[in-house]
TrEMBL record:
The lineage of its organism: Bacteria, Pseudomonadati, Pseudomonadota, Betaproteobacteria, Burkholderiales. InterPro entries: AraC_XylS_family_regulators (IPR050204), Class_I_gatase-like (IPR029062), Homeodomain-like_sf (IPR009057), HTH_AraC (IPR018060), HTH_AraC-typ_CS (IPR018062). GO terms for molecular function: DNA-binding transcription factor activity; sequence-specific DNA binding. It comes from Massilia eurypsychrophila. Keywords: DNA-binding, Transcription, Transcription regulation. This is ArgR family transcriptional regulator. Residues 211-309 form the HTH araC/xylS-type domain.
Length: 313
């Protein structure tokens, strides 16, 4: 399903994308982002897509060129190597209609205070470097986020999924399929899929009750617990648990739990041969119609259509 904001970029001819490389060119975060976009530009031709690369110092000094999308890129291991001109770089990047960060770039944007109120995918290893009370970005444990004109990705191997999803939203599934074939990639992980240790890394010490509640949810997908049961097991009232989820995850426990189960269902539809009915039962849905309705509300298409996408691919 096309992202309505990103789909507008396809109207630009050529679409000009700039990657500000603030890290090493052989890092997984950089290569995972650059290779799919470079192939897209090659397949489409310069009249439709132009992908360029700048170092932070050269980008900060270049105030004349116009870009439609600017991404600040660095591996999470390079977070402490923030360029001296970062403030200027960020100010320049925000002139573009669409902008964001990948890997350590997300942390630098947050430190600059330009992600206030924005859902952002911060690498889990960098959670300790962010002051939760001081920063007002809504950090999620997801692989990547498209929040309006702001794009963020946790980096690493997820950069490939992020770049391929960006290609699909802007230029369509056919081009994405060509790039997947060229790079020998079978499946693109969705934005809603989570960094496996993100929640524990961020909240384990600061909010152990929240981390414990999420762990209980993840361990009880087939037979879901009630919100009251989870609250009792972690030693909180229902109201206290709901307050924690709302404050740190921007969701009620029941909604968060439902999305966990649906994400698991989507993974089973893509990666296994279980029937749609079996998948629904394995993820705690006793009614096929309830499963189909909830799945469609979250992902924009039915479980049958999800399975058909895998068979077609």
């Amino acid at each position: 399903m096309a992202h309505p904001d990103l789909a507008r970029l396809a109207q630009e001819a050529p679409l000009r994308v700039l990657l500000v490389n603030a890290g090493q060119p052989d890092a997984l975060t950089w290569s995972g982002l650059y290779q799919p976009l470079r192939l897209a530009a090659k397949l489409l031709g310069p009249e439709r897509l132009h992908v360029d690369v700048r170092s932070p110092d050269k980008f900060g000094a270049d105030a004349l060129r116009h870009w439609h999308l600017v991404l600040l890129v660095a591996d999470e291991s390079e977070a402490a190597l923030k360029p001296a001109a970062m403030r200027t770089v960020i100010e320049r990047a925000r002139v573009a209609p669409f902008w964001g960060g990948v890997g350590a770039g997300v942390l630098w944007l947050a430190d600059a205070g330009v992600l206030n109120g924005v859902r952002a995918a911060l690498p889990w290893a960098l959670y300790a470097d962010v002051d939760i009370k001081a920063d007002h970005a809504v950090f999620t444990p997801n692989l990547y986020e498209f929040d309006g004109a702001r794009l963020t990705c946790c980096g690493g191997a997820a950069s490939i999924d992020f770049a391929l999803t960006l290609v699909e939203h802007v230029f369509g599934a056919a081009l994405q399929a060509q790039i997947k074939e060229a790079l020998c990639i079978d499946r693109v992980r969705g934005a809603e899929e989570r960094q496996r240790v993100a929640l524990q890394a961020r909240f384990g010490a600061l909010q152990p009750k929240l981390s414990e509640a999420v762990t209980l949810m993840e361990a009880n997908i087939e037979e879901p617990l009630s919100t009251d049961d989870i609250a009792g097991l972690v030693g909180l009232s229902r109201r206290q648990l709901e307050r924690l989820f709302k404050q740190y995850l921007g969701s009620l426990p029941s909604r968060y739990y439902l999305e966990l189960r649906l994400q698991r269902a989507r993974q089973l539809l893509l990666d296994t041969n279980y029937s749609i009915v079996q998948v629904g039962l394995m993820c705690g849905f006793s009614s096929g119609s309830h499963f189909s309705t909830a799945f469609g509300a979250l992902f924009g298409h039915t479980p049958r259509e999800e399975r058909q996408r895998r068979l077609t691919a």
